[in-house]
Amino acid sequence: MTLDEFASANAPTEKGKTFQLQNHKLLAVDGAVTALAGSMVAYSGDVTFSGKASAEGGVTGFLKSKATSEGTAVMDAEGTGRLYLADQGKEIGIISLDEGESITVNGNDVLAFADTVDYEIGTIDSLAGSSAGGLTNVYLPGPGDVAITTHGDPVVLEPPVRTDPSATVAWSGSLSPSADVNRSLSDVVGQSSDETYQLAFTGDEGFVVVQPFEEGP
User: Fold this and answer.
1) Which one, of 141, 24, 161, lies nearest residue 86 by Cα?
2) Is residue 178 classed as helix, strand or coil in its secondary structure?
3) Where residue 4 falls among pLDDT bands split at 50, 70, 90?
4) CA pair distance 36, 57, nearest whole angstrom
5) Composition of the chain by helix, strand, coil, percent to 5
6) Is the pLDDT of residue 63 over 70?
7) Of 68, 49, 67, which is closest to residue 59 (Cα–Cα)?
């Protein structure tokens, strides 16, 4: 491949939608967005960055966990330029929410969301005392685009289903999981394993996104 061929094959997409995938691991944003701090890999034109305050206080309050008191900083980006985002080489998926639609995402797996999308922080308190350290999640109601990240290609499952909290990426807003312990798994893999704690999704509608990777708390 010549230099010109390489440049042409990897050129950015034309501006259009607010969120556009350049490839599986790189997101282009045209418009105002809230993004994971440190996820900017490049930008062109006029883009302004600012810290995001929240009810918990400070720019690290966005994904603060009640269980661990840890947080993930985010930033607001706006202007007339184009912003490129990535997160540690993770795969990126874009979900477009209509008015009245919503999704809940694991705090580790939120890359960005449009300024039309609101957010609310929560935890599954019954996991707070487990080795999983609680599951900080972000409730995101539409309308607007949401970019999530996964280690590898995800699978989308329909309830009823039970999932490992450390491998659970997101679920549709119609679902409300409960925490449970599988005693038989406790005997097999040991009490210290996160696999003994599971999220139980019930009902006959909605979806759950699971990745082939277990993230730490």
Assistant:
1) 24
2) strand
3) confident
4) 17
5) 10, 40, 45
6) no
7) 49
Judged against a pLDDT cut of 90, whether residue 99 lies above it is answered with: yes
Of the chain, the end-to-end C-alpha distance in Å amounts to 43
- Taking the domains of the chain in order of start, what are their residue ranges? 3-210
Q: Does domain 3-210 have CATH number 1.10.10.10?
A: no
Q: Write a three-state SS string for 76-93.
A: EEEECCEEEECCCCCEEE
pLDDT of residue 67 exceeding 60, the answer is no
CA atoms within 13 A on the CB side of 101: 13
* 182-201 residue pLDDT tens: 766 555 554 554 557 889 99
What is the distance between the alpha carbons of residues 123 and 107, in angstroms, rounded to a whole number? Answer: 10
Token pair for 108: 């580790």
Q: Which residues contact 101 (CB under 8 A, 6 or more apart)?
A: 141, 142, 143, 173
Residues 6 or more apart whose CB falls under 8 angstroms from that of 116 comprise 142, 143, 144
